[in-house]
Design goal:
By secondary structure, this protein is α/β, with parallel strands linked by helices. It contains 15 helices and 13 strands. Strands 3-2-1-4-5-6-7 form a seven-stranded parallel sheet, sandwiched between helices. The protein has a six-stranded parallel sheet with strand order 10-9-8-11-12-13, with helices on both faces. Helix 3 packs across helix 4, helix 7 packs across helix 10 and helix 8 crosses helix 13. It is elongated.
Length: about 400
């Protein structure tokens, strides 16, 4: 039996509720607090998000860092190593490049027993320099956790993980969170300025290039040409970075050019996502790349038929033509056709939604995800303890033999 252990989650950025942030929040809030003490460290985070994690009982540390190469990175790496030693952290688990680079170095310096790298995408953002660095520190990592088989295979092909030290743990969702009273639906439509007869097609995504909202907008135009009483929603916030203004302007220009004003709505960040999903008839993801989308699981948990691109882990979550439609990326025509098929065949849409919800219950629950993580943590710590004991016995045996020769 492994005694209570300490784990530190190291993540590059905590500034908005994207997939990684939601995943960490779920994991920290549901791990067995009688067995695990959680710590959270970030190189860039809002005070609001840090408070949210502190409210879960996690101890937090902010190590401001803008560039991963340089004297500041070295100093923050040393501070991290000192923190790991002082708090006797048993496991370090990293998320994204800066954490994947500095985390193992600091943990090795601090003699942290277990180092885990979490891989949540297909590596599409990595530069050749990033990949060079990540390959060089593979020997420091005890286990790489991938969110899908697709991620595992893609990173193995790029030699960014050791296949003998890699696991797949799927994301999970809590089905009970998606129960919404039916009488609330008409009020939500009225609040948005929609009529009761309007159909709703929704996408939950923080707008950025990889989500390819251009395809969603072009598909919307084709759908509206065939079915005028359809409204399209984009639920998610534009992150404030150097690339955001141009992408926001690009999308605004595109939707205006497609004459979608009033029918294609950017709602920004919302706290009522479950209610918005409840009024949706079809849910869509047009991503160019996905590791294993939390959003897709939420669509399915809400009992919605989906139209998603056949990329990455999407093909592991969705059973084509049973829980939804898989379409090629950058294909507004196929996307629009699939949406129209579901809007015109409500019985098909309902059946797909029910099947999707059952698939979540059978394979992708939050409880299963947390249990898999906790089991892996215990397994890795047990293996480390066994190795430590064997090494101690080996050294003791060698010392005895040396002593015997000396005595003889």
């Amino acid at each position: 039996m492994i005694p209570k252990f300490k784990i530190l989650f190291l993540v590059d950025v905590l500034r908005g509720w994207g997939g990684t942030e939601k995943h960490l929040y779920q994991l920290i809030s549901h791990l067995d607090k009688n067995q695990v003490k959680c710590f959270l460290c970030s190189f860039a985070a809002t005070s609001e998000m840090m408070r949210d994690f502190q409210a879960l009982g996690a101890s937090t540390l902010l190590l401001p860092l803008e560039r991963v190469y340089g004297i500041t990175a070295l100093k923050q790496g040393l501070r991290l190593a000192q923190f790991l030693r002082q708090n006797r952290i048993d496991i370090v688990q990293t998320f994204h490049f800066a954490a994947d680079f500095l985390g193992p170095l600091a943990a090795k310096s601090a003699r942290t027993p277990v180092i885990i790298a979490s891989k949540r995408d297909m590596g599409f953002q990595n530069s050749s320099l990033h990949n060079f660095v990540l390959r060089r520190i593979q020997s420091f990592i005890d286990e790489t956790i991938c969110v899908s088989k697709a991620v595992n295979q893609a990173l193995a092909a790029q030699k960014l993980l050791d296949k003998n030290k890699a696991s797949v743990i799927y994301n999970g969702v809590d089905l009970s969170e998606f129960a919404v009273a039916h009488e609330d639906l008409s009020e939500k439509k009225q609040e948005l300025g929609f009529s009761a007869e309007d159909s709703v097609v929704a996408m939950v995504a923080n707008p950025r290039a990889v989500k390819d909202l251009e395809t969603f907008a072009r598909a919307a135009r084709r759908v509206i040409d065939m079915e005028p009483n359809v409204r399209f929603l984009v639920i998610g916030e534009f992150h404030q970075n150097s690339n955001t203004p141009s992408y926001r302007e690009k999308l605004n220009h595109l939707t205006a050019g497609l004459n979608l004003n009033g029918r294609f709505c950017f709602l920004g960040r919302r706290t009522d996502i479950k209610e918005l999903l409840a009024i949706a008839d079809v849910c869509v993801l047009t991503s160019l790349s996905e590791g294993f989308s939390n959003t897709l699981l939420e669509y399915m948990a809400a009992g919605k038929p989906v139209v998603v691109t056949a990329v990455g882990g999407n093909r592991e979550a969705v059973i084509a033509n049973e829980t939804g439609f898989l379409v090629p990326p950058r294909c507004p025509g196929r996307t629009a056709d699939s949406i129209i098929t579901l809007l015109r065949n409500p019985h098909l849409a309902e059946r797909m939604g029910r099947t999707a919800q059952k698939r979540i219950k059978d394979f992708f629950t939050l409880d299963a995800m947390v249990a898999n993580y906790q089991s892996l943590y215990t397994q890795l710590l047990s293996q480390t303890l066994i190795k430590k004991t064997m090494n101690h016995c080996k050294r003791s045996s060698m010392n005895r033999k040396t002593q015997d020769r000396t005595d003889g």
